Amino acid sequence: EVQLVESGGGLRQPGMSLRLSCAASGFTFDQYAMHWVRQGPGKGLQWVSGISWNSGSITYADSVEGRFTIFRDNAKNSLYLQMNSLRAEDTAFYYCVKDKNLLQLGALDIWGQGTMVTVSS
Amino acid sequence: QSALTQPASVSGSPGQSITISCTGTTSDVGGYKYVSWYQQHPGKAPQLMIYDVTNRPSGVSGRFSGSKSGNTASLTISGLQAEDEADYYCSSFTTISTVVFGGGTKLTVL
User: Fold this and answer.
1) Which residue of A15, A63, B40, B93 has the smallest Cβ count within 10 Å?
2) Kind of pairing, strands A10-12 and A18-25?
3) Given CB atoms, is A107 within the 8 Å cutoff of chain B?
4) What does the buried/exposed string (b/e) look like for A50-68 if buried means 16 or more CB atoms within 10 Å of the residue's CB?
5) Interchain contact, A61 vs B98, CB within 8 Å
């Protein structure tokens, strides 16, 4: 079964850090680009970051550029999101998502169930 | 990275067809064939319904179809069913190799 399982969400104060992890199974992880997409409470989807199959191409949304870092470990079938300098507006469900392509072209065919990040003092 | 423009809501009766529009620019929707559509039911993760403007993933009903003209992409659902009631989002690849979503459209089946 193709599956993405996120972990690492929680409550942090503004300015603190958090690392999200995503464990992939059921497909050849190193043949696909991966993304993080978030959804604030009662809000729409917002793309956060994408990484190509070999980490050769990495892109970020303007709202997280310089604060968040996406990386992957193909040997461990895992995707990560290091989140620094957290802000209240980063509060959201964070989804780990698989792309249908080697590059992060945005055809997001497999979604995890999400992990909640709350930033509040 | 401005969000793509979708109508906030659309509605239709069972059996009817509806179309949801998604308007961007030449830097995203108009410039690439990489437009996708997602369905999201309350409390659930989104599901890919259309990718590369017109392609349907395996398992998605043939009642769902996509198209594009200029800077506007469209999702058409024919033969509306109660289970189609959900939020729908479009997305597009952009010239700076990012992905941008639309604001979402709430579909109500009357």
Assistant:
1) A15
2) unpaired
3) yes
4) bbbbeeeebbbbeebeeeb
5) yes
